[in-house]
Amino acid sequence: MTKPRKGLSLTTRQGLTGIGFISPWIVGIIFFFLVPLCSTIRYMFGDIKFGSGRVIFKYVGLENIKEMFFRNPDNGRMILENLWSSIGTTVLILIFSIFAALLINQKFHGRALVRALFALPIIVSSGVLLQVFKQDLFAQTMTAEAGSIFQSSALEAAMINMGLSNKIVTFVTGFVNSIMDIIWKAGVQILLFLAGLQAIPTSLYEVSSVEGATAWQTFWKITFPLLTPYLILNTIYTIIDSFTFYDNPVMAEVISLFRDMKYGWASVLSVVYSLVVFLLIGIVFLLLSRFAYYTEK
Questions:
Q1: DSSP string, 46-75
Q2: pLDDT of amino acid 209
Q3: Contact indicator for 294, 229 with CB cutoff of 8 Å
Q4: Measured between alpha carbons, how far is residue 157 from residues 166, 169, 178, 186, 277 in Å?
Q5: pLDDT tens digits along 191-231
Q6: Average pLDDT over residues 239-260
Q7: CA 36, 42, 47, 50 torsion: positive or negative?
Q8: Phi, psi of 194 (to 5 degrees)
Q9: Which residues does residue 55 pair with via DSSP β-bridges, in sequence order?
Q10: What is the average per-residue pLDDT within 175-181?
């Protein structure tokens, strides 16, 4: 009498299926992220030159780090300035995304067309096209006395005449000048917030209406708490996107150093910049996760 064959358990088969499903991602992480990352960290401590068809690596210790941040402190200042600028842009994008998602979630004629227009930046996600689009609009409105819709010279003059402080004028005019960038960068965030709004049970709104809650109370007691998981996701996505966008001065400097074949300096700047971004993402995640509300809980 033969013994019955023992097959793999259901848990094991599910585990193998999961590993097979994410295997392309694992291969991509190893060969297209970890290997270049290790090479970049190695280049931080060396002088890279090319000769006789091969790469010549000369160990220089901390010389590249000293050159980039101690002998040239403008690089550290540039990272900090870009950090604050990106945080401000992230806040504006998130506020606009929630506002736009609330609007297009309403029932009105042409809602599908409006949603498609907000999804256009996702389809045409090129920063070069955005720059060309802005320049074209600016060229068409140069003859107007008030300036173009992306320039705030008239608004700045009016606010100064009103006696407002320079900080308020700078904040408002900076927002006006970057409104096109904010709209263009908010496509993914709007769709994610829209998905979160559609996942909220309508019974909660019906109960709040019966209890006599105002729209303002309903938003802060129901809508916003249930959107907090999507807020975390959008915040992390926006931070990464803003730190790697085409107009980022740090990224432009890294690319310029690579083109000049200063691989050691470029590696130092890119690694330090990445560490700053990862640190910011970790802090933001820890802070926002404390206030996130999950219905499963």
A1: EEEEEETTEEEEEE-TTHHHHHHHTS-THH
A2: 87
A3: yes
A4: 11, 9, 18, 29, 36
A5: 899 889 988 888 888 888 888 888 888 999 889 999 999 99
A6: 83
A7: negative
A8: -65, -40
A9: 50
A10: 70
CA distance 240 to 47: 30
Q: How many CB atoms lie within 10 A of CB 148?
A: 16
Instruction: Say how many C-beta atoms besides its own lie within 10 A of residue 130's C-beta.
Output: 20
pLDDT > 60? residue 285: yes
57-289 CATH:
1.10.3720.10
Could you tell me where the beta strands, DSSP code E, fall in the chain?
46-51, 54-59
For 22, phi and psi rounded to 5 degrees? -95, 5
Of residues 61, 58, 56, the one with CA closest to residue 45:
61
Considering all CA atoms of the chain, what is the largest pairwise distance in Å, rounded to the nearest integer? Answer: 100
Q: How far apart are the first and last CA of the chain?
A: 53
Asked if 251 and 106 touch (Cβ cutoff 8 Å), the reply is no
* pLDDT tens, residue by residue, 96-155: 899 988 888 888 777 777 777 776 666 655 555 555 555 555 555 544 444 444 556 666
- Which band of pLDDT confidence, cut at 50, 70 and 90, is reported for residue 286? very high
**Bridge partner residues of 57 (DSSP):** 48
- How far is 276 from 280, CA to CA, in rounded Å? 6
Q: Cα separations (Å) of 23 from 11, 37, 60?
A: 18, 20, 38
DSSP-derived secondary structure for 115-177: HHHHHHHHHT--HHHHHHHHHHHHHHTTTSTT--TT--HHHHHHHHHTT--HHHHHHHHHHHH
What pLDDT is attached to residue 147? 43
